[in-house]
Amino acid sequence: EVHLEESGGGLVQPGGSLRLSCAASGFTFSNYWMHWVRQVPGKGLLWVSRIKTDGTGTSYADSVKGRFTVSRDNAKNMLFLQMNSLRAEDTAVYYCTRDSGLGLDYWGLGNMVTVSS
Amino acid sequence: DIQMTQSPSFVSASVGDRVSITCRASQDIRFWLAWYQQKPGKAPKLLIYGASNLQSGVPSRFSASGSGTDFTLSISSLQPEDFATYFCQQSNSFPLTFGGGTKVEI
Predict the structure, then answer these.
(1) In this complex, which of B50, B97, B101 lies closest to A47 when CB atoms are compared?
(2) Is residue B16 less than 8 Å (CB to CB) from chain A?
(3) Which residues of A touch B49 (CB under 8 A)?
């Protein structure tokens, strides 16, 4: 059974950093592109970042470019999102999600990140 | 960026009703469209991929159509568990973008 579980969120002050992790199981992690998507509670979904299978190809939303870095460790079936220079508008639930090639077919439960002083 | 516009934002319906939701892309996305269902406090769930293909395990009362810029998600006979928010999403180009969502309410 495919399972994705995020961790590492919490409360951080503006300008601070957090590193989100996503542990993957139940599938061959190295075969799939992975994404981070975030959602302000009660609002819509915003795509944040994508990483290709071998980690060499990454893309970011303009709103996080230069501040966030996505990476993966295929040997440990782990996905990461390093978030620096955090702003209040980065406050959201962050989901890791698997890309089937035609849709985002599995999602983690999400991890809340709150940026506030 | 490709803008995705969903309508309506809210639908008030009853069990057994047929409901349709539309999604319009700001440019041609061919068939690179997916639909998701999200319930409160839960992660989105993939319903439809490739504009009209039912994801495994999704009930057949869900159907979808469209290509290019105009797409539709339909629920043929609304069930109690279908009351949720539905999002469309394009994967024709980066950044991936989502529609604003349609909340289906009782």
Answers:
(1) B97
(2) no
(3) 100, 102-103, 105
Residue A39 CA: distances (Å) to CA of A18, A32, A83, B19: 17, 22, 16, 25
Question: Residue A56: pLDDT above 90?
Answer: no
B57 in contact with A, Cβ within 8 Å: no
DSSP helix, strand, coil percent of chain B (3-state; round to 5): 5, 50, 50
* Residues recorded for chain A: 117
| Structure tokens that stand for B99 in this block | 């529609």
B17 neighbors B78 (Cβ within 8 angstroms)? yes
3-state SS, residue B82: helix
Query: A13 burial class (0-12, 13-18, 19+ CB within 10 angstroms)?
Result: exposed
Residues of B in contact with A35 (CB under 8 A): 96
**pLDDT digit string, tens, across residues B51-63:** 999 999 999 999 9
Distance from CA of B102 to the nearest CA of A (A): 10
Res B106 pLDDT > 90? no
